[in-house]
Amino acid sequence: MNSALSASTDSKSTFSAQGTAQITAHSSEKPAKFERVCILHHPKKPESQILGRSIGKFLEAQGVQEIYHESAWESALPNTNLDLLITLGGDGTLLRSARLGAAYGLPMLGVKMGRLGFLAEVMPDDWQRPLKELLEGRYWIEERLMVRARVERPTEDKGTICTVCEYDALNDVVFSRGDLARVVRISAHLDGGYLTQYTCDGVIVSTPTGSTGYALAVSGPILPPELRNMLLIPIAPHLSMDRAVILSEGTEVRMRAYSDHRPILTVDGQVVVEIEEEDEVIVVASPHLARFVRLRDPSYFYQTLMDKMKWSG
Q: Could you tell me the domains of the chain?
């Protein structure tokens, strides 16, 4: 793995297999060099492209050897042998970037150009100072769980099962009723054992990162981002189980919908898959982690949550 992904001169967060946070000093390590950086802009925000060019010129003046500019909406990176992704946009841009870079272990630094900005680290009017800190090695890496959703379908002769599609998500995957305002029945199995059948608008399988998103809107619990757990929670359940279930990282969630209309699966609110009658949706922890460059103290999460949700009083 590229050494630029983990070095720090102060401290950084690493995570045990149980998902607990550990702060380990690395003051003796040589600061990493970021030699290949890709700046991902929001294609519908011209101001992000302007800022991206300014950041690129700054990095070039600081000795960064290779700088790429690309849309965050592309399906692939221009170069997978990178040291860093810098994203310019809101949390949606970071979600897309996470799906692009996680498979290569690439760390991301988010520059906030959206509304909430839970995931971004840098403000657009104060980016030179943080970038200097980064290039000097004064940062830590936060790793976050992602989930992987797979749609399986019987072949026409019913003899085998084929995989229709497979996607990773940083926030959540949502199995829901689709366009019609009618409930759908969704059965859920955990590790092969039957859990329940929901009568609801849909079911969310969320990461700790997604616990402050859609899951929070349906009264789910808030999970610290360093946890390695998944959250299973129904949307508007009707006369069926209405509680969230927190699952361990190794759990397999298998769901099937029973409806007279076609339900859908959404991935991070950005990818939509139509589900057919005999399809099963399987959700597990992804083998890849999203890696965020952090410059703030590791306790930043709770204060950010209070500030963004205006709960601090």
A: 3-139+295-308 (3.40.50.10330), 147-287 (2.60.200.30)
Whether 91 is catalytic is yes
What tens digit of pLDDT does each residue of 87-138 get?
A: 999 999 999 999 999 999 999 999 998 776 789 999 999 999 999 999 999 9
Element (H, E) at 165: strand 161-169
Helix (H, G, I), strand (E, B) or coil at 36: strand
Residues 6+ apart with CB under 8 A from 17: 228
Q: Which of 83, 91, 201, 268 is catalytic?
A: 91
Residues 310, 279 contacting (CB under 8 angstroms): no
- What are residue 205's DSSP bridge partners? 173, 232
Is the Cβ–Cβ distance between 292 and 110 less than 8 Å?
yes
What is the pTM for the complete model shown?
0.86
For the record, the structure tokens of 102 come out as: 């996680």
Instruction: Tell me which residue has tokens 């969630």.
Output: 253
